[in-house]
TrEMBL record:
Belongs to the ABC transporter superfamily. Siderophore-Fe(3+) uptake transporter (SIUT) (TC 3.A.1.21) family. It comes from the Bacteria. This is ATP-binding cassette subfamily B protein/ATP-binding cassette subfamily C protein. Residues 4-229 form the ABC transporter domain.
Length: 229
């Protein structure tokens, strides 16, 4: 997977004060880089730039040595997979949800991704896996399980970079652990960039980038940031 380099990025929505001013940092391959900061800091805007929904006014975003502005948008969105905060699952089974995202996926690839996202038990022993649908039978996957299913769908397409906007909802400790393990598995194959809302994610990240009012206030490990306070 590539190193993601954000260098001197400026961005402003029309008629607004700048959303990002001179943002620079590097996200290493096979590592977790956590973006933290208050609402309005520019985290979502940065994710939009990473997917080329908008273009920086100044600065650049590179995958290794390649400026994403030189790549077709389709290729950028294939290489960088985005999992939104409240990703919706489709009605149907876990396996149907996975195959919808990656119709060509083999059974072995599905097994691998189910293992990585700690969802094996929802398919084991059942031909298609548990039904995820909300209906007369009620919700059969919890919020944490649905978020892992969304990550599984993204990973099945074998992206270079996983962009994860972590959900804010409460998770019980089992789901919290499963999410940690899922993100760690993703970081074995991808460059992981996440908008972190959970303390456990922040403490486990390899690097933290603190954004405030569109600027990088600090970067470093959790420990180095705690020590410098
Ligand atoms: P965060 O994700 O950290 O909460 P955002 O990237 O959503 O921050 O917002 C950064 C700044 O850009 C804020 O001042 C916000 O009001 C503004 N902003 C975000 N999206 C839009 C938009 N679509 N149009 C205009 N301003 C926006
Ligand atoms: P496309 O033109 O590629 O079909 P969409 O507008 O349908 O793009 O969005 C594709 C995905 O990207 C959706 O999951 C959507 O929630 C997400 N997305 C849209 N706008 C943004 C943004 N500004 N930042 C991050 N993700 C976004």
């Amino acid at each position: 997977p590539p190193t993601v380099t954000v260098r001197g990025v400026h961005f402003q929505y029309a008629d607004r004060s700048p959303a990002l001013t001179g943002v620079s940092f590097t996200a290493r391959a096979r590592a977790q880089t956590a973006l933290v900061g208050p609402s309005g800091a520019g985290k979502t805007t940065l994710f939009g730039l990473l997917q080329r929904f908008y273009e920086p006014e100044q600065g650049e975003i590179r995958l290794d040595d390649v400026d994403i502005a030189t790549l077709p948008r389709g290729e950028v969105r294939r290489r960088l997979a985005y999992v939104e905060q409240d990703a919706t699952t489709l009605s149907g089974t876990v396996r149907q949800n996975l195959l919808y995202s990656a119709p060509e996926a083999t059974d072995a690839e599905i097994e691998e991704v189910l293992h990585a996202t700690r969802l094996t038990e929802f398919v084991a022993g059942l031909p298609q896996g548990l039904d995820t649908s909300v209906g007369s039978r009620g919700v059969t996957l919890s919020g944490g399980e649905r978020q892992r299913l969304a990550i599984a769908r993204a990973l099945l397409r074998r992206p270079d970079v996983l962009l994860l906007d972590e959900a804010t909802g409460q998770l019980d400790s089992r789901n919290e652990q499963a999410l940690r393990a899922t993100i760690a598995s993703a970081a074995e194959q991808c460059t992981v960039l996440l908008i972190a809302h959970r303390l456990s994610t922040i403490t486990e990240a390899d690097q933290i980038v603190v954004l405030e009012q569109g600027q990088v206030r600090a970067t470093g490990s959790h420990q180095s940031l705690v020590d410098s306070d």
